[in-house]
Amino acid sequence: MADYHEMWAGLGLDLKTHDMVLEIVGKAYQDIFLSQKNRPKGMSYFDFVVSEIHGLRIKEIMDAKAEGRKVIGTFCVFVPEELVLAVDAVCIGLCAGAELGFEEAEKYLPRNTCSLIKAAFGFKLAKVCPYIETTDLIVGENTCDGKKKAYESYKDIVGNLYVMDLPQMKSTEGRALLKAEYKRFAQKLEEISGKKITVESLKKGIEIANNKRKAINRMAALRSADPTPISGLDALLANQVFFYDDPVRFTGSVNAICDELEARNREGMGVAPKGSPRILLSGCPMAVPNWKVPYVIETSKAVIVGEEMCTGERGTQNLVNTKGNTVDELIDGIVDRYFQIDCAVFTPNPSRLEHIKKMVKEYKADGVIHYGLQFCQPYQMESKIVEKELEKAGVPTLLIETDYSQEDAGQLKTRIEAFVERIKS
Ligand code: SF4
Ligand code: SF4
User: Fold this and answer.
1) Rounded to the nearest whole angstrom, what is the distance from the C-alpha of residue 182 to the centroid of ligand 2?
2) Ligand 2 atom with the shortest distance to the CA of 75
3) To test ligand 1's pocket by mutation, which of 91, 139, 151, 310 has the most ligand atoms within 8 angstroms of CB?
4) What residue owns the CA closest to ligand 1's atom 2?
5) Measuring CA to CA, how many Å separate 380 from each of 140, 278, 290?
6) Which of 70, 175, 228, 311 has the fewest beta carbons under 10 Å from its own?
7) pLDDT tens-digit profile of 19-51?
Protein backbone atom coordinates (compact mmCIF):
# COMPACT_ATOMS: atom_id res chain seq x y z
CA MET A 1 0.00 0.00 0.00
CA ALA A 2 1.23 3.51 -0.82
CA ASP A 3 1.81 5.97 2.01
CA TYR A 4 -1.53 7.61 2.78
CA HIS A 5 -0.56 9.23 6.10
CA GLU A 6 -0.93 12.73 4.71
CA MET A 7 -4.47 11.97 3.51
CA TRP A 8 -5.40 10.37 6.84
CA ALA A 9 -3.93 13.30 8.78
CA GLY A 10 -5.97 15.65 6.59
CA LEU A 11 -9.09 13.70 7.56
CA GLY A 12 -8.26 14.19 11.23
CA LEU A 13 -7.47 10.57 12.06
CA ASP A 14 -5.43 9.62 15.11
CA LEU A 15 -2.50 8.28 13.11
CA LYS A 16 -0.95 6.22 15.89
CA THR A 17 -4.16 4.36 16.75
CA HIS A 18 -5.08 4.07 13.10
CA ASP A 19 -1.71 2.46 12.23
CA MET A 20 -2.28 -0.01 15.04
CA VAL A 21 -5.79 -0.85 13.76
CA LEU A 22 -4.52 -1.46 10.23
CA GLU A 23 -1.82 -3.72 11.56
CA ILE A 24 -4.27 -5.79 13.61
CA VAL A 25 -6.79 -6.08 10.76
CA GLY A 26 -4.01 -6.95 8.29
CA LYS A 27 -2.76 -9.71 10.58
CA ALA A 28 -6.28 -11.07 11.17
CA TYR A 29 -6.93 -11.07 7.42
CA GLN A 30 -3.72 -12.99 6.84
CA ASP A 31 -4.59 -15.59 9.48
CA ILE A 32 -8.28 -15.95 8.65
CA PHE A 33 -8.57 -15.44 4.89
CA LEU A 34 -5.20 -16.00 3.29
CA SER A 35 -4.66 -19.23 5.21
CA GLN A 36 -7.72 -20.83 3.55
CA LYS A 37 -7.05 -23.59 1.06
CA ASN A 38 -8.38 -23.81 -2.46
CA ARG A 39 -9.80 -20.28 -2.66
CA PRO A 40 -11.22 -19.07 -5.98
CA LYS A 41 -8.56 -17.10 -7.83
CA GLY A 42 -10.97 -14.19 -8.27
CA MET A 43 -10.84 -13.57 -4.51
CA SER A 44 -7.52 -11.83 -5.13
CA TYR A 45 -9.68 -8.83 -6.07
CA PHE A 46 -11.10 -8.77 -2.54
CA ASP A 47 -7.64 -9.33 -1.04
CA PHE A 48 -6.58 -6.17 -2.86
CA VAL A 49 -9.71 -4.26 -1.79
CA VAL A 50 -9.13 -5.15 1.84
CA SER A 51 -5.44 -4.26 1.67
CA GLU A 52 -6.48 -0.82 0.32
CA ILE A 53 -9.69 -0.43 2.32
CA HIS A 54 -8.43 2.72 4.06
CA GLY A 55 -6.08 3.65 1.22
CA LEU A 56 -7.00 3.61 -2.44
CA ARG A 57 -10.77 3.47 -1.84
CA ILE A 58 -10.61 6.55 0.40
CA LYS A 59 -8.48 8.30 -2.21
CA GLU A 60 -11.11 7.48 -4.83
CA ILE A 61 -13.80 8.93 -2.58
CA MET A 62 -11.73 12.05 -1.96
CA ASP A 63 -11.25 12.43 -5.73
CA ALA A 64 -15.01 12.11 -6.21
CA LYS A 65 -15.50 14.84 -3.62
CA ALA A 66 -13.02 17.05 -5.42
CA GLU A 67 -15.20 16.65 -8.53
CA GLY A 68 -18.16 17.93 -6.52
CA ARG A 69 -19.82 14.59 -5.76
CA LYS A 70 -21.28 14.11 -2.29
CA VAL A 71 -20.63 11.19 0.06
CA ILE A 72 -23.51 9.60 1.95
CA GLY A 73 -22.80 7.30 4.90
CA THR A 74 -25.37 4.73 6.01
CA PHE A 75 -25.94 2.26 8.83
CA CYS A 76 -28.81 0.22 7.49
CA VAL A 77 -29.94 -1.61 4.36
CA PHE A 78 -33.18 0.38 4.47
CA VAL A 79 -31.38 3.42 3.06
CA PRO A 80 -32.02 3.24 -0.70
CA GLU A 81 -28.74 3.40 -2.58
CA GLU A 82 -30.74 4.01 -5.79
CA LEU A 83 -31.64 7.53 -4.64
CA VAL A 84 -28.05 8.27 -3.64
CA LEU A 85 -26.80 7.13 -7.05
CA ALA A 86 -29.50 9.20 -8.76
CA VAL A 87 -27.76 12.39 -7.58
CA ASP A 88 -24.38 10.92 -8.57
CA ALA A 89 -23.32 10.68 -4.92
CA VAL A 90 -21.19 7.95 -3.34
CA CYS A 91 -22.95 5.60 -0.92
CA ILE A 92 -20.90 3.91 1.79
CA GLY A 93 -21.78 1.65 4.70
CA LEU A 94 -20.41 2.86 8.03
CA CYS A 95 -21.23 -0.12 10.28
CA ALA A 96 -18.11 -1.29 12.06
CA GLY A 97 -17.26 -4.74 13.34
CA ALA A 98 -14.51 -4.26 15.91
CA GLU A 99 -14.27 -3.43 19.60
CA LEU A 100 -12.67 -0.01 19.32
CA GLY A 101 -13.21 3.12 21.34
CA PHE A 102 -15.80 1.34 23.48
CA GLU A 103 -14.63 3.08 26.66
CA GLU A 104 -15.23 6.47 25.04
CA ALA A 105 -18.51 5.24 23.56
CA GLU A 106 -19.74 4.24 27.01
CA LYS A 107 -19.59 7.91 28.03
CA TYR A 108 -22.60 8.34 25.72
CA LEU A 109 -24.20 4.91 25.77
CA PRO A 110 -25.23 2.48 28.49
CA ARG A 111 -22.92 -0.47 28.85
CA ASN A 112 -25.70 -2.81 27.78
CA THR A 113 -25.78 -1.48 24.21
CA CYS A 114 -25.02 -3.83 21.32
CA SER A 115 -21.50 -3.84 19.85
CA LEU A 116 -22.70 -2.58 16.48
CA ILE A 117 -23.95 0.69 17.97
CA LYS A 118 -20.98 1.01 20.30
CA ALA A 119 -18.59 0.57 17.37
CA ALA A 120 -20.36 3.34 15.41
CA PHE A 121 -19.57 5.68 18.29
CA GLY A 122 -16.19 4.12 19.06
CA PHE A 123 -14.81 4.43 15.52
CA LYS A 124 -15.75 8.10 15.38
CA LEU A 125 -14.51 8.93 18.88
CA ALA A 126 -11.23 7.04 18.47
CA LYS A 127 -10.71 8.83 15.10
CA VAL A 128 -9.91 5.64 13.20
CA CYS A 129 -12.52 5.56 10.43
CA PRO A 130 -11.65 7.56 7.30
CA TYR A 131 -15.06 6.73 5.79
CA ILE A 132 -16.95 8.63 8.51
CA GLU A 133 -14.67 11.62 7.95
CA THR A 134 -15.35 11.74 4.20
CA THR A 135 -19.14 11.94 4.56
CA ASP A 136 -21.23 14.96 3.67
CA LEU A 137 -24.29 13.35 5.22
CA ILE A 138 -24.73 10.40 7.58
CA VAL A 139 -28.11 8.72 7.50
CA GLY A 140 -29.41 7.20 10.71
CA GLU A 141 -32.71 5.32 10.78
CA ASN A 142 -35.35 4.60 13.36
CA THR A 143 -35.07 0.85 13.56
CA CYS A 144 -34.35 -0.66 16.99
CA ASP A 145 -34.65 1.39 20.18
CA GLY A 146 -30.89 1.24 20.65
CA LYS A 147 -30.11 2.97 17.36
CA LYS A 148 -33.04 5.33 17.54
CA LYS A 149 -32.03 6.74 20.90
CA ALA A 150 -28.29 6.59 20.22
CA TYR A 151 -28.72 8.94 17.27
CA GLU A 152 -29.79 11.64 19.71
CA SER A 153 -26.20 11.88 20.99
CA TYR A 154 -24.53 10.71 17.76
CA LYS A 155 -25.81 13.82 15.97
CA ASP A 156 -23.67 16.05 18.21
CA ILE A 157 -20.59 13.90 17.72
CA VAL A 158 -20.71 13.78 13.92
CA GLY A 159 -22.47 17.05 13.12
CA ASN A 160 -23.98 15.87 9.79
CA LEU A 161 -26.61 13.34 10.84
CA TYR A 162 -29.96 12.98 9.09
CA VAL A 163 -32.51 10.64 10.66
CA MET A 164 -34.94 8.66 8.56
CA ASP A 165 -38.10 7.37 10.19
CA LEU A 166 -39.04 3.78 9.40
CA PRO A 167 -42.22 1.78 9.93
CA GLN A 168 -42.36 -1.03 12.47
CA MET A 169 -45.29 -2.89 10.92
CA LYS A 170 -45.88 -4.20 7.41
CA SER A 171 -49.21 -2.42 7.08
CA THR A 172 -50.67 -0.01 4.50
CA GLU A 173 -49.82 2.82 6.86
CA GLY A 174 -46.30 1.41 7.25
CA ARG A 175 -45.78 1.41 3.50
CA ALA A 176 -47.09 4.97 3.24
CA LEU A 177 -44.64 6.09 5.93
CA LEU A 178 -41.76 4.45 4.09
CA LYS A 179 -42.71 6.16 0.85
CA ALA A 180 -43.04 9.54 2.54
CA GLU A 181 -39.64 9.10 4.17
CA TYR A 182 -37.99 8.07 0.89
CA LYS A 183 -39.46 11.16 -0.77
CA ARG A 184 -38.16 13.35 2.05
CA PHE A 185 -34.74 11.69 1.69
CA ALA A 186 -34.79 12.28 -2.08
CA GLN A 187 -35.43 15.93 -1.41
CA LYS A 188 -32.57 16.11 1.08
CA LEU A 189 -30.23 14.50 -1.45
CA GLU A 190 -31.25 17.01 -4.11
CA GLU A 191 -30.65 19.82 -1.66
CA ILE A 192 -27.15 18.79 -0.61
CA SER A 193 -25.99 17.70 -4.07
CA GLY A 194 -27.59 20.55 -5.99
CA LYS A 195 -28.78 17.93 -8.52
CA LYS A 196 -32.33 17.09 -9.49
CA ILE A 197 -33.46 13.45 -9.47
CA THR A 198 -34.88 12.73 -12.91
CA VAL A 199 -36.55 9.64 -14.36
CA GLU A 200 -33.34 8.99 -16.26
CA SER A 201 -30.95 9.43 -13.31
CA LEU A 202 -33.14 7.34 -11.04
CA LYS A 203 -33.48 4.55 -13.60
CA LYS A 204 -29.69 4.54 -13.90
CA GLY A 205 -29.32 4.35 -10.10
CA ILE A 206 -31.82 1.50 -9.93
CA GLU A 207 -30.01 -0.37 -12.67
CA ILE A 208 -26.60 -0.06 -10.96
CA ALA A 209 -27.99 -1.24 -7.60
CA ASN A 210 -30.00 -4.05 -9.22
CA ASN A 211 -26.93 -5.29 -11.10
CA LYS A 212 -24.91 -5.32 -7.90
CA ARG A 213 -27.61 -7.39 -6.18
CA LYS A 214 -27.95 -9.73 -9.15
CA ALA A 215 -24.22 -10.46 -9.03
CA ILE A 216 -24.09 -11.17 -5.30
CA ASN A 217 -27.28 -13.26 -5.52
CA ARG A 218 -25.73 -15.21 -8.37
CA MET A 219 -22.79 -15.97 -6.08
CA ALA A 220 -25.20 -17.03 -3.34
CA ALA A 221 -27.07 -19.43 -5.65
CA LEU A 222 -23.83 -21.17 -6.66
CA ARG A 223 -23.25 -22.13 -3.05
CA SER A 224 -26.09 -24.65 -3.16
CA ALA A 225 -23.67 -27.11 -4.79
CA ASP A 226 -22.00 -29.86 -2.78
CA PRO A 227 -19.07 -29.46 -2.45
CA THR A 228 -19.60 -25.73 -2.12
CA PRO A 229 -17.27 -23.78 -4.45
CA ILE A 230 -16.51 -20.88 -2.07
CA SER A 231 -16.11 -20.63 1.68
CA GLY A 232 -18.63 -18.81 3.83
CA LEU A 233 -15.83 -16.51 4.96
CA ASP A 234 -15.08 -15.42 1.40
CA ALA A 235 -18.77 -15.03 0.55
CA LEU A 236 -19.28 -12.95 3.70
CA LEU A 237 -16.32 -10.79 2.72
CA ALA A 238 -17.93 -10.09 -0.66
CA ASN A 239 -21.15 -9.17 1.16
CA GLN A 240 -19.23 -6.84 3.47
CA VAL A 241 -17.33 -5.13 0.64
CA PHE A 242 -20.73 -4.68 -1.09
CA PHE A 243 -21.18 -1.63 1.18
CA TYR A 244 -17.87 0.13 0.41
CA ASP A 245 -16.79 -0.54 -3.10
CA ASP A 246 -17.50 1.25 -6.34
CA PRO A 247 -20.77 -0.52 -7.32
CA VAL A 248 -20.01 -1.06 -11.01
CA ARG A 249 -16.51 -2.41 -10.40
CA PHE A 250 -17.84 -4.60 -7.58
CA THR A 251 -20.49 -6.08 -9.89
CA GLY A 252 -17.90 -6.94 -12.54
CA SER A 253 -15.56 -8.54 -10.01
CA VAL A 254 -18.29 -10.65 -8.39
CA ASN A 255 -19.55 -11.81 -11.78
CA ALA A 256 -15.99 -12.83 -12.72
CA ILE A 257 -15.78 -14.90 -9.52
CA CYS A 258 -19.17 -16.43 -10.34
CA ASP A 259 -17.87 -17.58 -13.75
CA GLU A 260 -15.06 -19.31 -11.89
CA LEU A 261 -17.47 -20.83 -9.35
CA GLU A 262 -19.66 -22.18 -12.14
CA ALA A 263 -16.63 -23.93 -13.61
CA ARG A 264 -15.78 -25.31 -10.16
CA ASN A 265 -19.32 -26.64 -9.77
CA ARG A 266 -19.11 -28.35 -13.17
CA GLU A 267 -15.88 -30.02 -12.09
CA GLY A 268 -17.15 -30.87 -8.61
CA MET A 269 -14.39 -28.79 -7.04
CA GLY A 270 -15.04 -27.28 -3.63
CA VAL A 271 -13.45 -25.62 -0.64
CA ALA A 272 -14.40 -28.45 1.72
CA PRO A 273 -14.87 -32.18 1.09
CA LYS A 274 -18.22 -33.23 -0.40
CA GLY A 275 -20.64 -34.10 2.37
CA SER A 276 -19.20 -31.59 4.87
CA PRO A 277 -21.84 -30.36 7.34
CA ARG A 278 -23.55 -27.33 5.80
CA ILE A 279 -24.51 -24.39 8.00
CA LEU A 280 -26.85 -21.50 7.36
CA LEU A 281 -26.02 -18.38 9.38
CA SER A 282 -28.90 -16.20 10.46
CA GLY A 283 -29.31 -13.11 12.60
CA CYS A 284 -27.60 -9.76 13.20
CA PRO A 285 -25.39 -8.24 10.50
CA MET A 286 -21.62 -8.82 10.58
CA ALA A 287 -19.68 -5.69 9.62
CA VAL A 288 -15.96 -5.66 8.69
CA PRO A 289 -13.83 -6.97 10.41
CA ASN A 290 -16.27 -9.14 12.33
CA TRP A 291 -15.21 -12.61 11.20
CA LYS A 292 -15.11 -14.43 14.56
CA VAL A 293 -18.11 -16.77 14.30
CA PRO A 294 -17.67 -17.73 10.60
CA TYR A 295 -14.00 -18.46 11.29
CA VAL A 296 -14.89 -20.70 14.24
CA ILE A 297 -17.52 -22.54 12.16
CA GLU A 298 -15.27 -23.10 9.17
CA THR A 299 -12.39 -24.32 11.31
CA SER A 300 -14.75 -26.84 12.93
CA LYS A 301 -15.08 -29.04 9.83
CA ALA A 302 -18.28 -27.35 8.66
CA VAL A 303 -18.96 -25.01 5.78
CA ILE A 304 -21.27 -21.98 5.69
CA VAL A 305 -23.60 -22.05 2.69
CA GLY A 306 -25.67 -18.91 3.23
CA GLU A 307 -26.24 -15.84 5.37
CA GLU A 308 -29.73 -14.74 6.35
CA MET A 309 -28.45 -11.37 7.50
CA CYS A 310 -28.23 -7.80 6.27
CA THR A 311 -24.64 -8.60 5.30
CA GLY A 312 -26.16 -11.37 3.21
CA GLU A 313 -29.42 -12.30 1.59
CA ARG A 314 -31.74 -10.26 3.81
CA GLY A 315 -29.96 -7.19 2.48
CA THR A 316 -29.63 -8.25 -1.14
CA GLN A 317 -32.74 -10.24 -2.04
CA ASN A 318 -35.38 -8.76 -4.38
CA LEU A 319 -34.78 -6.22 -7.13
CA VAL A 320 -36.40 -2.86 -7.81
CA ASN A 321 -38.85 -2.75 -10.68
CA THR A 322 -37.41 -0.46 -13.35
CA LYS A 323 -40.79 0.29 -14.90
CA GLY A 324 -42.17 3.77 -14.33
CA ASN A 325 -42.68 6.97 -16.26
CA THR A 326 -42.29 9.39 -13.37
CA VAL A 327 -39.94 9.73 -10.42
CA ASP A 328 -42.89 9.03 -8.13
CA GLU A 329 -43.67 5.74 -9.90
CA LEU A 330 -40.03 4.71 -9.68
CA ILE A 331 -39.98 5.54 -5.97
CA ASP A 332 -43.01 3.26 -5.62
CA GLY A 333 -40.92 0.47 -7.12
CA ILE A 334 -38.13 1.24 -4.62
CA VAL A 335 -40.59 1.21 -1.71
CA ASP A 336 -42.01 -2.14 -2.88
CA ARG A 337 -38.56 -3.69 -2.79
CA TYR A 338 -37.37 -2.28 0.52
CA PHE A 339 -40.66 -2.90 2.29
CA GLN A 340 -39.95 -6.63 1.91
CA ILE A 341 -36.80 -6.46 4.08
CA ASP A 342 -37.65 -8.58 7.07
CA CYS A 343 -35.57 -7.03 9.81
CA ALA A 344 -36.44 -8.19 13.34
CA VAL A 345 -37.48 -4.64 14.24
CA PHE A 346 -40.78 -5.39 12.44
CA THR A 347 -43.62 -6.89 14.38
CA PRO A 348 -44.87 -9.44 13.63
CA ASN A 349 -42.19 -10.65 11.25
CA PRO A 350 -43.30 -14.01 9.78
CA SER A 351 -41.62 -13.54 6.38
CA ARG A 352 -38.17 -13.76 8.00
CA LEU A 353 -38.93 -17.22 9.30
CA GLU A 354 -40.24 -18.25 5.89
CA HIS A 355 -37.08 -16.89 4.29
CA ILE A 356 -34.86 -18.85 6.67
CA LYS A 357 -36.77 -22.06 5.87
CA LYS A 358 -36.52 -21.32 2.14
CA MET A 359 -32.78 -20.75 2.43
CA VAL A 360 -32.31 -24.02 4.39
CA LYS A 361 -33.94 -25.83 1.49
CA GLU A 362 -32.26 -23.95 -1.34
CA TYR A 363 -28.75 -24.18 0.07
CA LYS A 364 -29.29 -27.68 1.44
CA ALA A 365 -28.27 -26.60 4.93
CA ASP A 366 -28.00 -29.30 7.60
CA GLY A 367 -28.42 -26.84 10.43
CA VAL A 368 -28.86 -23.17 11.33
CA ILE A 369 -26.65 -21.10 13.62
CA HIS A 370 -28.48 -18.02 14.83
CA TYR A 371 -26.06 -15.22 15.56
CA GLY A 372 -27.36 -12.68 18.04
CA LEU A 373 -25.35 -9.77 19.31
CA GLN A 374 -25.47 -9.38 23.05
CA PHE A 375 -28.06 -6.75 24.07
CA CYS A 376 -29.79 -6.88 20.68
CA GLN A 377 -33.39 -7.25 21.75
CA PRO A 378 -35.07 -7.61 18.33
CA TYR A 379 -32.90 -10.49 17.10
CA GLN A 380 -32.47 -12.14 20.50
CA MET A 381 -36.21 -12.20 21.06
CA GLU A 382 -36.92 -13.44 17.57
CA SER A 383 -34.25 -16.13 17.88
CA LYS A 384 -36.45 -18.11 20.28
CA ILE A 385 -39.27 -18.24 17.72
CA VAL A 386 -36.79 -19.17 14.97
CA GLU A 387 -35.28 -21.98 17.08
CA LYS A 388 -38.66 -23.41 18.07
CA GLU A 389 -40.03 -23.39 14.53
CA LEU A 390 -36.90 -24.79 12.91
CA GLU A 391 -36.44 -27.57 15.43
CA LYS A 392 -40.11 -28.45 14.97
CA ALA A 393 -39.42 -28.71 11.23
CA GLY A 394 -36.45 -31.01 11.95
CA VAL A 395 -33.71 -28.42 11.34
CA PRO A 396 -31.05 -28.50 14.09
CA THR A 397 -30.58 -24.95 15.39
CA LEU A 398 -27.97 -23.38 17.63
CA LEU A 399 -28.48 -19.97 19.24
CA ILE A 400 -25.33 -17.97 19.81
CA GLU A 401 -25.13 -14.77 21.77
CA THR A 402 -21.85 -12.96 21.50
CA ASP A 403 -20.16 -9.58 21.08
CA TYR A 404 -17.06 -8.19 19.39
CA SER A 405 -14.56 -9.41 21.99
CA GLN A 406 -12.43 -12.49 21.44
CA GLU A 407 -12.89 -13.68 25.01
CA ASP A 408 -15.58 -16.23 24.20
CA ALA A 409 -13.85 -17.67 21.11
CA GLY A 410 -12.88 -20.87 22.97
CA GLN A 411 -16.33 -21.37 24.41
CA LEU A 412 -17.93 -20.74 21.00
CA LYS A 413 -15.61 -23.29 19.44
CA THR A 414 -16.70 -25.95 21.95
CA ARG A 415 -20.41 -25.26 21.36
CA ILE A 416 -20.08 -25.10 17.58
CA GLU A 417 -18.04 -28.30 17.42
CA ALA A 418 -20.69 -30.08 19.50
CA PHE A 419 -23.37 -28.72 17.14
CA VAL A 420 -21.48 -29.97 14.09
CA GLU A 421 -21.24 -33.40 15.74
CA ARG A 422 -25.01 -33.31 16.35
CA ILE A 423 -25.62 -32.58 12.66
CA LYS A 424 -23.34 -35.39 11.56
CA SER A 425 -24.94 -38.02 13.77
S1 SF4 B 1 -30.65 -5.64 10.94
FE2 SF4 B 1 -32.37 -4.18 10.66
S3 SF4 B 1 -31.56 -2.27 11.52
FE4 SF4 B 1 -29.80 -3.59 11.09
S5 SF4 B 1 -29.10 -3.10 9.00
FE6 SF4 B 1 -30.55 -4.77 8.86
S7 SF4 B 1 -32.51 -3.79 8.45
FE8 SF4 B 1 -31.17 -2.22 9.28
S1 SF4 C 1 -27.71 -5.49 16.31
FE2 SF4 C 1 -29.77 -5.29 17.18
S3 SF4 C 1 -29.58 -3.78 18.83
FE4 SF4 C 1 -27.78 -3.61 17.51
S5 SF4 C 1 -28.29 -2.04 16.03
FE6 SF4 C 1 -28.87 -3.98 15.09
S7 SF4 C 1 -31.02 -4.32 15.63
FE8 SF4 C 1 -30.21 -2.69 16.97
Assistant:
1) 22
2) 5
3) 310
4) 343
5) 22, 23, 18
6) 175
7) 999 999 999 999 999 999 999 999 999 999 999
Query: Which amino acid, one-letter code, is at 381?
Result: M
Whether ligand 1 lies within 6 angstroms of the CB of 86 is answered as no
pLDDT in tens, 332-346: 999 999 999 999 999
Distances (CA, A) of 37 to 25, 232, 272, 299, 364: 20, 13, 9, 12, 23
- Those residues whose C-beta lies under 8 Å from the C-beta of residue 289, and which sit 6 or more positions away, are 25, 28, 29, 97, 98
Q: How far is the CA of 243 from the centre of ligand 1 (A)?
A: 13
Mean pLDDT per 10-residue run, the chain (425 residues)?
94 97 96 96 96 96 98 98 98 96 97 97 98 98 97 97 98 98 98 98 98 98 98 98 97 98 98 97 97 98 98 98 96 98 97 98 98 98 98 98 97 98 92
Distance in Å, CA 95 to ligand 2 centroid: 11
pTM score of the predicted model: 0.97
DSSP 351-376: HHHHHHHHHHHHTT-SEEEEEEETT-
Side chain identity at 228, as an amino acid letter? T
Question: Which mutation among 95, 144, 154 tests ligand 2's pocket best, with the greatest number of atoms within 8 A of CB?
Answer: 144
What percentage of the chain's residues is helix, strand, coil (to nearest 5)? 55, 10, 35
d(CA 155, CA 140): 9
Give the orientation angle of helix 377-392 with respect to helix 350-362, to 10 degrees. 50
